[in-house]
Give the backbone structure.
Amino acid sequence: MSVTLVTGVIGDDIHNIGIKVLEHALRNNGFNIVSLGIGVSQKEFIDAAIETKADGILVSSLSGHAKVLSEGFRQKCTEAGLENILLYIGGHLFIGDDKWEDVHTYFEDLGYNRVYPASTLPEEVIAALKSDFQQRGRQL
């Protein structure tokens, strides 16, 4: 059973190296990747997830503007019929001196299942995906 993941860089962010590395690792581990590239809106993520019947959305951001760009995303997913989709976000998600614990909690409160700093290795994301899908009864 193949798992489809929609990936992209949210908003006006043009930093794509991290998501490209992650996409490569995910493909090498058997995931089907729908890469939307850079400058992706919440609507584009949702439309792609619906069109491809995706199992998850992985959002990247390095500009530090993810706090603003991600507000209401889970709610919009739910309104579009994607209430059970896995949502991950990672990168340099904020600007300022916020403690990582506070940033992590902020994004969890927005409805993200997993939140990662920019230093996260692909293997950690892959392990989390496998665990999350296994908990949902999906064997990878």
Notes: The helical segments are 17-28, 42-52, 66-69, 73-79, 100-109, 122-135. Residues 4-40+64-135 form a domain with the Rossmann fold fold (CATH 3.40.50.280). The chain is about 40% helix and 20% strand.
